Amino acid sequence: MTTLILVTFLVCSCFAEEYYQIRSSPGGGYQVNKLNSGDPNVQVDFLDFGNDYFDGTQLSDTETIVYGTLDSNHFQITGVHRMLPIDRPSDYNRETHYLFFEEDEEEDYYYTKVNIDSPAIKVGRMNNHFLNYPMIDRSWLDNKLYQTSKPFKAIARAEIRDGRVEVRAVFVSLMDPISSPCAPVHDECYDGRVITYYRDHERCVHFDQCVYPAERCSNRVPRCYDGYKLVSIPSGRRGCPRYICDPEFLPQTI
User: Nearest CA to 144 among 19, 224, 247, 23?
Assistant: First the structure.
């Protein structure tokens, strides 16, 4: 007597969500390249945006990273990062890597390479001049680089030499704020006092306190680097404006 045993193999047709650089293709469509892979470009004819937040107008050649699932010539996009405008040319002739950063409780920094599952490596020394841009919101950028979780975490393009990391570009998620639009502020002050505000790490403005205004604040209105917009917030003990330079491609939060 012969017994037949039927074995069924289940093949998963799933594709992992990963990060790619994207640029327009001269013949139409797009060329995408998986970050840190060394693979050749892949031609994509159709982009599918997974939510109403993205519509393709946010894409910019050499300045955009997309997050999603690549299946043949179809790309399902669930996230978009744009490069912070830089004030000096970036040297593309040197080898660079795309990195995520973390900071531990002892304020030591570690990096992992985007799209590569490997242990974090401690940074011997890091130079990130983006954190020192005049009037950039450092608490916001610090949070995006070191505290925010994927897929909204900022990505750095950097050189790595003998444990030293030289950041050449920073890409931030266009989902900013992440969760929802900032809540409106409805507080008011009395007795001749004025409202002051503070911003959180999502760039949302919150009521701080009521203060008596200064007799005179500085008349000097600073200018931002190209690609940034000037934001003014009454703050401090006398309600004088605090100036911040936000990337132009991010939505206004006040």
Answer: 247
